[in-house]
C-alpha cells in the first residue's frame, strides 16, 4: 500500500478481534515493538484434531468486567524481549484484526500484561504496509457511537 493510502493511527486506539469474541479492546500502538501482545490471565494447552491449541482467559478492561474465554491454534513459540529487557518464550496465535476499516490476520503473542495500562500492544508487523502513526493523537478510530 502506498504511503498516501495508509490509515493514520493515534498512539492508542480500539480494535476488534472478532475470532476471539473481543470488541473495542484498548490497544497501545507501538512501532518499537516487533510483535503484538495480548494480555491473558490464564492459559492452557490442549490438542484438537492432532494439532496444538491454546485456551486462555483475559479481562478486556471494560467496566462490565469483560471476562473473555477463547481458544486458538498455537502457530509458534518464540523468545520475546519485553520493554524491561527480559527475555522469555511466548506462544503465538493467529487472529483477525479489524481496525479503521482494515481487516487482516495478525500474529499475537500471549503474556500477562496485568501491570500494563493497555491489555494489548499493537506491534509494527501487524501495522506493516497499512498504517502510519501520529504519536500526538489518540482514539482516532472505533469510537463509541452515540444514539441519535
TrEMBL record:
Organism per entry: Solilutibacter tolerans
Gene3D superfamilies associated with the record: Acid Proteases
Pfam families reported in the protein's UniProt record: Zn_protease
Family matches, as InterPro entries: Asp_endopeptidase (IPR008503), Peptidase_aspartic_dom_sf (IPR021109)
Annotated Retropepsin-like aspartic endopeptidase domain residues: 8-142
Domain of life per record: Bacteria
Residue stretches in coiled coil: none
PANTHER family the UniProt entry points to: ATP-DEPENDENT ZINC PROTEASE DOMAIN-CONTAINING PROTEIN-RELATED, ZN_PROTEASE DOMAIN-CONTAINING PROTEIN
Protein name: Uncharacterized conserved protein
Amino acid at each position: 500500500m502506498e504511503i498516501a493510502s495508509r490509515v493514520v493511527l493515534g498512539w492508542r486506539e480500539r480494535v476488534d478481534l472478532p475470532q476471539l469474541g473481543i470488541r473495542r479492546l484498548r490497544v497501545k500502538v507501538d512501532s518499537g515493538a516487533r510483535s503484538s501482545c495480548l494480555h491473558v490471565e490464564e492459559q492452557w494447552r490442549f490438542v484438537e484434531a492432532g494439532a496444538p491449541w491454546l485456551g486462555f482467559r483475559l479481562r478486556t478492561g471494560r467496566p462490565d468486567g469483560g471476562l473473555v474465554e477463547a481458544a486458538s491454534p498455537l502457530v509458534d513459540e518464540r523468545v520475546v524481549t519485553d520493554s524491561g529487557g527480559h527475555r522469555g518464550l511466548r506462544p503465538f496465535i493467529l487472529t483477525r484484526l479489524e481496525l479503521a476499516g482494515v481487516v487482516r490476520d495478525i500474529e499475537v503473542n500471549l503474556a500477562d500484561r496485568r501491570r500494563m495500562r493497555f491489555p494489548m500492544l499493537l506491534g509494527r508487523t501487524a501495522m506493516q504496509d497499512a498504517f502510519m502513526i501520529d504519536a500526538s493523537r489518540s482514539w482516532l478510530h472505533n469510537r463509541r457511537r452515540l444514539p441519535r
